[in-house]
Fold:
Amino acid sequence: MFSDNYKREAIMQIVPRPDTVFVKGKGSNVWDQHGKCYIDWIQGWAVNSLGHCHADMLEALNRQASQLINISPAYYNAPMLELAKLLTDKSCFDQVFFANSGAEANEGAIKLARKWGKKYKNGAYKIITFTNGFHGRTLATMSASGKKGWDTMYAPQVDGFLKATYNDIKSVESLIDTDTVAVMLEPIQGEGGVIPANHHFLKSLRQLTQDQNILLIFDEVQTGMARTGHLFTYQSIDGIGSTSTQHADFTPDILTLGKGIGGGVPLAALLAQEKYCVFETGEQGGTFNGNPLITAVGYAVVKKLSECQFLENVRRQANYLSKELNALKEFMPELVISERGTGLLRALELSQEIAPQIVQRSFDLKPKGLLINGVRPSILRFMPALNITEEDTDEMITLLKSILSTFKDN
Ligand SMILES: *Cc1c(COP(=O)(O)O)cnc(C)c1O
Structure:
């Protein structure tokens, strides 16, 4: 039990939160201050890739905490170097800049592209991004995002972001001019409602950017780190997929990672191929960037995520989840339209705008609650831990069915 006399009013209200206070987590389960258990299919917003309080993370945290928690970012530390080596070994990229959030990694990508434009492309600075895209909540990444209303919320925006239409290569082509330095996109729009870019579009985009000498930036903050059944989603676009980790035919020039890379600790990364690593001394930095405690945990997480058997299991569990979500169509044909997604980033499209009610009723369910995300008024999103089992999926589906049943004849 947990004494609860907290003043909720001392927290800025940025999102409607239930009064519940969460106190404990293990695997796919979390517990609140009253001891009620919930199964967690949000997992910190696709962050806790190994579930709550995984043994490998605890081991790394404890070991590193007793060794070295922090050192100036102006010095090397061992975990930072080990994690950078692991990430570059497993990808087509040569160098890494560590950050604390996805938005910060994307800011870094934007700066790197602009710097490259300054140096090699007559000061080109414009970056083409996409309607409904999401890249974070700093001023520049909000400007890069294509979310409705964000263009005026904190006006004026950061200049130089043009919006193309996702999966429409002509819309990209028509925006290119001599000031264009990069195209930046998510290979699957996560916050946009789990909308995948089709591979033909991505290949055309790679060809177009190559022909025009424009950088291609992949924001894999949500789709990276095994979420889609490959360590990085770009590796599944042309050829190799999960069996080899290195040699994809399709390679972006710059990549950003966040969310799942730390498994729950604040870690993100900007990766680039050598010829685009153009930062000079003093041009980029940050107090906590490459912090040894955080990168030590990141190393333990990435090592686990990049194991062949781990990736195979993600794909197996994804197939199972997909099959079970599809079966909900037969269970409630008037309510469930379709399921979609890649790996363990999936969505269920409903015929009515009842996602908020489903989320609420799932939360209130007794004795066990269910944490689930309504990414859009009529879309539920599923982003479980990547090491779930069939039993975890069965348990979630059972709870979800009981909730869907409450909408019968509504
Ligand atoms: C979550 C997300 C971000 C922002 O990450 P933060 O850690 O919240 O700053 C950026 N891009 C994508 C694709 C995301 O899903």
